Model the fold of this input.
Amino acid sequence: MNTIGNKFVFTSFGESHGRAIGGVLDGVDAGVRIDLALIRQALDVRSGRTSTVGVSARAQNERDEVEWLSGVLPDPEHEGQLISEGTPIAFIIRNTDARPQDYEWLRHHLRSAHADYTYEHKYGIRDVRGGGRASARETVSRVVAGSIAQMLLRARGVQIRARVIQIGDETDSRQWETLLADVQRQGDSVGGIVECTITGLPIGLGEPVFDKLQSHLAYAMMSINGCKGFEYGTGFDMTHRGSELYHDVPCPASGGIEGGLSNGLPLVFRCAFKPAASIAREGHPRGRHDACIALRAVGVVEAMSALVIRNFWG
Amino acid sequence: MNTIGNKFVFTSFGESHGRAIGGVLDGVDAGVRIDLALIRQALDVRSGRTSTVGVSARAQNERDEVEWLSGVLPDPEHEGQLISEGTPIAFIIRNTDARPQDYEWLRHHLRSAHADYTYEHKYGIRDVRGGGRASARETVSRVVAGSIAQMLLRARGVQIRARVIQIGDETDSRQWETLLADVQRQGDSVGGIVECTITGLPIGLGEPVFDKLQSHLAYAMMSINGCKGFEYGTGFDMTHRGSELYHDVPCPASGGIEGGLSNGLPLVFRCAFKPAASIAREGHPRGRHDACIALRAVGVVEAMSALVIRNFWG
Amino acid sequence: MNTIGNKFVFTSFGESHGRAIGGVLDGVDAGVRIDLALIRQALDVRSGRTSTVGVSARAQNERDEVEWLSGVLPDPEHEGQLISEGTPIAFIIRNTDARPQDYEWLRHHLRSAHADYTYEHKYGIRDVRGGGRASARETVSRVVAGSIAQMLLRARGVQIRARVIQIGDETDSRQWETLLADVQRQGDSVGGIVECTITGLPIGLGEPVFDKLQSHLAYAMMSINGCKGFEYGTGFDMTHRGSELYHDVPCPASGGIEGGLSNGLPLVFRCAFKPAASIAREGHPRGRHDACIALRAVGVVEAMSALVIRNFWG
Amino acid sequence: MNTIGNKFVFTSFGESHGRAIGGVLDGVDAGVRIDLALIRQALDVRSGRTSTVGVSARAQNERDEVEWLSGVLPDPEHEGQLISEGTPIAFIIRNTDARPQDYEWLRHHLRSAHADYTYEHKYGIRDVRGGGRASARETVSRVVAGSIAQMLLRARGVQIRARVIQIGDETDSRQWETLLADVQRQGDSVGGIVECTITGLPIGLGEPVFDKLQSHLAYAMMSINGCKGFEYGTGFDMTHRGSELYHDVPCPASGGIEGGLSNGLPLVFRCAFKPAASIAREGHPRGRHDACIALRAVGVVEAMSALVIRNFWG
Done:
């Protein structure tokens, strides 16, 4: 339920306004250097603090700080760095907004809390802490775990790079700043499309017939909040006929996967993100990264890609 | 690899031109009546023998006949019907085209066989029998298993119905017959989009945060040969703003899933199928169902949906 | 439920008096030669046709013949041999005693069939075909799959050898023939202990903390019908003190496993088999292998060991 | 690797002398009251602070204190109690002996650390913090998670009770105090046998043919440090013949499981624990619970039983 992977296994926990969110990452070899700067950078992209797509970053008061609970040792050779022990890496990021005195309030106001329709129906208890597991904050843990997976993959020559390619109807990135300013001013939100390119994969990654590479990528992407679609290669583009597409082997229109296995070409897929619901519902203006959640999803798409690829490539 | 599900578990086996293809379905309760006519009908749709979309069906010399190996008993009350025993249901469909004398030929011509680029690279052996596991024939097993899942779901009031909604660029179904005739005449192929609607689901099916309902559906659909994209709700349509979409709870634009869980509205998703490669490559004309594999994929989409839903709804 | 392993995956199906029993083995590399003689031999040991422990084998009218459904090709270089394709290997062994006309009888006598207490309670349907999945006949499939695993392990220098070391209270094998004759004459049954020795394992096989090597071996052995106990190293022998046991590293008293991982010494474990229930209940005399099911379990213990080891050593 | 269960899923993390050990428990329904006193008591038994077997408890300076990270809320109705949210319950127990300044030492003395033979071979890095994951301290997390499982099972009328029934060769509990004092005086260690009885189970828990109840119990018990054997029912006792055992249905000699499924009788199994290695090796005297690790294993056996039963009984 809250675990993904079977060889490289990530378990996520924590509610958005609880004490902490965190994760456990099992399957990291011993002796791997953990690049804390890379994790720092990925977290800043996710939080909207750093922008990678030419859209102004939002100000934010506090940064997510990772606290390591297990599985890592101080690197004896590099001051301030960590090295993996081969045991499960557990970490948390404290939710600094959560205050103990809030709990007093809970005793008397349990019924008036915000609630998610389906969660409440399923669990019979509303997660009173403000969205709970369904919140986008849960993705912080994914970014930490995915960054570690990316470190392992880089050592093998794999590069994973995601970017926004469309905001609303607009594919020209020079228009995005204006578009987002407009959306933001109206307290509205807009959807977007993220494209991810993975290079350096060996040929043959994936397993027929159910554990195809695209199956696991789609599974992982659709688990990201707000993701409503996944496509690779020609995807939903129906303008081509077969005769145009298959002149070469491996096939450039393949998106990097044939028969469920990587074919050595760059793997390219796209994810559709819907306009955020919370803005429209709550009506209060937010930063540009909230006006289009695809902007913040970029790092999560990379993280989930890395977890999937690393799990296949044990 | 060749198994899907963890509570309702389907294992698929068999090469397209080997002796037989088949499957094992574990998790079917004892005492369930197996509706052989429903399975017959689903197999005819898959093979292109029966058309469900207003496109002429192709002639075909032989039907797929299911041979039951285990897990079912003759129904003592209904002549010619079967009843499940609660043990794994194993079945095969023989490949009637496979002939023993072909094996003689193999000893001397192993190298000249057709081969799939990625498979050959991964396995180091070409599946000499003509496409092997990567062939669309493997979906016969899925249809049989999925039909049993559908029987179980119907008893709970769930209806799963897929249909083609677009062929090539054309969404007007009255134009499809002409379009396909044209494509077929040119020995070409064209893509298509299948939409699947599931009604009667309870609220709350699915599991946060990785085992979301849409994650498992996407996983299953992307495992179908030729499927290049999956979307639900607003999907890749980027024309809307958040303010238009979220007036009601549950949300009609949701596609039937909110927060990873079914919300009681009809679940609607779409799958993109690419133009078939084999036609363009081999150049010989085939029937209309081969000119657009989406037509034959309809039953497979329903079957995989049923396996996913039944696995969630143990 | 009927599947074991996650990388080397075996699925078992078939009822003891149904049409066939069989299995699907997923994870066998392409190009492996299948030694049919080894499978033949293992099946003969299991059926009691061949004796490996100095106890007279029983006569038996028919042999179990394996029918290969998928995953194997005729070896182009060796007449009458098979070679794996890298796809799931499916096989069946027909139950030659099963006769179609028996089904007529079922319609009228469903209620009078033999039934297993717990199965009937769980499934609500009695497996009218004589024991169904709970029957020892199900182990035929395990022996076939395990034999293939053994072939793969032998190529890596691993030898798995099980033998009976105790029958009833008797550990002196020279007394067994007489003991069994006596038990058999009385229409009774007696328990036995099987010891299995695995040599040639690399150091470090197994995974902390739950997927220890002994955990998976115990899991697999306890799934064999009639197995009531598993121990390795000093096991239930409580005569030693710590000071006697740990002079050397690796430790000879370890049974070949330390900290859940193989330590390079021969791995030695023992399984306790109870006296068979069916004989005592039904009262009719059978052969000596039925008087002590441990004799027939030898090959099943080897087969299950091979499946476990191969799954760990992907 | 560090995860057990598929519906009621427990993930364990933390090294014995790292910052903390902990776990994540997924699958706990929302609204369950967490009995902190029960967890307190189970931890005291595990640490040897509380004795349940008539053997003097050892003094110990500090208690294990559980810190809850996620998945629980303050119970609005009961001061100082917790209630589950339905999300993953994450918790840690800090290792109070671990001191940051130890890390300085590590930089210069990495090579001289204690190391476990197989771990070092497998991971290539010695867990410098004193035993790491292989340490018995890891079982603290199991006890916390297992206690929660026990709470859930008690609500369904299931009682799980383990006790030591043999220490060394001695089965008379009145002799244990003297025996242990003697062993302890010699700086030696001795093995022991723990028997666990589970009452209140429904009939039919378990799954044929691999996921038998005894298979999962054996798997879980063999994962406990020092456990060398598992048996149920007649187990390794070979004194009986079949004719003595099977007069009644369900069978009293069955140990509560027939055909892999619970039969409604009390489920009784036994685990053999070896003499602790560390004492004999290191030679320094310790408390009586260290002289016989079976004494401390009692709570771990109960905890692992509860995890297994709860996972089957979703």
Summary: The longest helix of chain D spans residues 293-312. Chain D has one domain: 3-312. Residues 3-312 of chain D form a domain with the Chorismate synthase, AroC fold fold (CATH 3.60.150.10). The two ends of chain D are 22 Å apart (CA to CA).
